[in-house]
Amino acid sequence: MIGARYGTLGGLVRLTLAPVELAIGRGGVHMKRPEDVRRLVFICHGNLCRSAFADVVARRAGLSVLSFGLSTKSGKRAHGPAIEAAARLGHDMGGHRAMDMTDYEPQDGDALLAMETRQLRWIGNIPHLWHLPRTLLGLYTSPKMLHLHDPYLRSNAYMETCLARIETAMPALRAAFPNARAVDEEPAAQEAAE
Question: Which domains does the chain show, CATH number per domain?
Fold first, then answer.
């Protein structure tokens, strides 16, 4: 039960601790003016599951997006079970290729959205990233999930649960960051999101 819903017992513990971290100012969130955001940049460990899926789904929802991993190798394909779970949810991750953070070039208007508070704290210590606005993707999921535990090498049930949670964030992201719409947004994507 815990594995299918939270990935591991550690995932449940981190989910429980995340609100406390935010309340005492250790969550790493640094977001002042959402209206200044022009592109959402999703971050996770490997850019093979969570941030890769968020990238694909947000792009399809008409948002200007990018994603990278904190510790990965640029060019790697998305994780096979993530591709399969995404397909069951109606999304194609087959063309995704990972990007390592060393290959990420920040732009004015970027906002970083991580899956875990520890990732936000890590970003806060990286010289070329610490100044960027950053927050947790889980603040926008329905219901809020302040810790989206890594589904890599976890059960297929948890992989699909995690990706489905990420998918629920798209309407809230569109509303919270109205200026992060893709310039070439397709009318069908715009109508579907409204």
Answer: 2-193 (3.40.50.2300)
